[in-house]
């Protein structure tokens, strides 16, 4: 193989952004001009899915190129370390001569585990309970706002909203962008770079900048889609649970909530411009592959549901856009590819584009190869909330083991999943075919919900929702004292290190071949209050205690 010029990789990852929420995906209300431009210069994969539409499992798939079955999490385990012996995306690139940096949210444990990156500039949304203070929190503390990022009062998984309460420059979206640009400018120019830039929004808390919320004030916001099945009393048990978990918003409140969500998306879109502009100013844009994707979607009122964890399109279907370099022939410009792809495919695809051998541990498929899946399997949760899904691109079959319930949708004719076909005899053949494929994918505790090749599930118990005393993950002010302590510790360490440097400078001067005896005498007299014969020393006290 002839020697090739290794491309840089700009990997833009967002959190909780549905695949349909893009101008280039046909959304008539949301403004995403930057991402639309990137899509026009590359390939948009319209049938991309998060195998487990939950933050941590999804990100494990991204970073290992593997399915949840392989990497070990289909639930949400905040304190689960990355799997041993499984090469990560950044480590594989570094092993092949790349510098690799992450900026923003990576959601691994331990939090400061670099998982192969040279450096991680971390934003973990105030999860200091897991043992680490992130760099964004330290940044706020250094500027006099320790612990105040959560003073807006909005929860991490709730759908109230307000505008951002600090100066614009302290918004996490702006901070992540700034640090990403600095990382690009600080790169080693002799090596290609991988930059994983991971925004925490539009994931709640919904705290857009005021100017972005105001952009949508006069926009006519379309109401969410509600399937007839979502209104029935006998709807699937896990769906009832989720519907009861979140408050059902009034039409007006939901409308403004969607405005706030769109505002966060547009803000990110505009910030991406700054990163792309930095690549251009550094004269490396034409040799940089740009990837844009999300870890999962967001229901945002569709079918009376909020957040993620379910297999409907708003939750499981994600944006996936890859724009190659001008000379990259394996990616068609402005092309919409409807093959089934997933987050586990990102790693092998990027390695393929960089002409790097794909590790044998990867279960994903390169999206630039001719090989295409016939079906894609997705899974989330265990126990009463367990949900399993399989799709052949046109039909989607969802199984809820609790109550042994089924749903099936024709995504071509019914992209908003309003009409459940599972009890329609006209589609019995399609349903049986997908059930046969689903059985092949089941493992672990799923097996007890089968009897031979028959699905039996288990009986769902009555559910009485308890009050959410955690307010959906609300962060508090206790972090203020933690950050102040961290900052004080850093300042004391800095003072100590400066003193050590001064002492070492003194010792080094004594070892020099060209001793300045007058200087040495001065240093000695200063340090040990040494006086010569017939000298008197006066000590002048200062009000400055540090001096």
Q: What do you see in this structure?
A:
The longest helix is centred in the last third of the chain and has 33 residues, at 478-510. The protein is α/β, with parallel strands linked by helices. The model has no long low-confidence stretch (mean pLDDT 91). It has 14 helices and 14 strands. It is 31% helix and 15% strand. Strand 11 and strand 12 form a beta hairpin. The chain has a domain at 8-371: Alkaline Phosphatase, subunit A (3-Layer(aba) Sandwich).
Q: How are the strands of the biggest sheet laid out side by side?
A: 4-3-5-1-6-7-2-8
Q: Which structural class do you get from the secondary structure elements?
A: alpha/beta
Number of strands: 14
SSE succession: EHEHHHEEHHEHHHEHEEHEEEEHEEHH
Strand content: 5-15%
Give the CATH H-level superfamily of the domain at 8-371: Alkaline Phosphatase, subunit A
Approximate shape: elongated
Number of helices: 14
N-to-C CA distance = 65 Å
* Largest sheet data: 8 strands, mixed
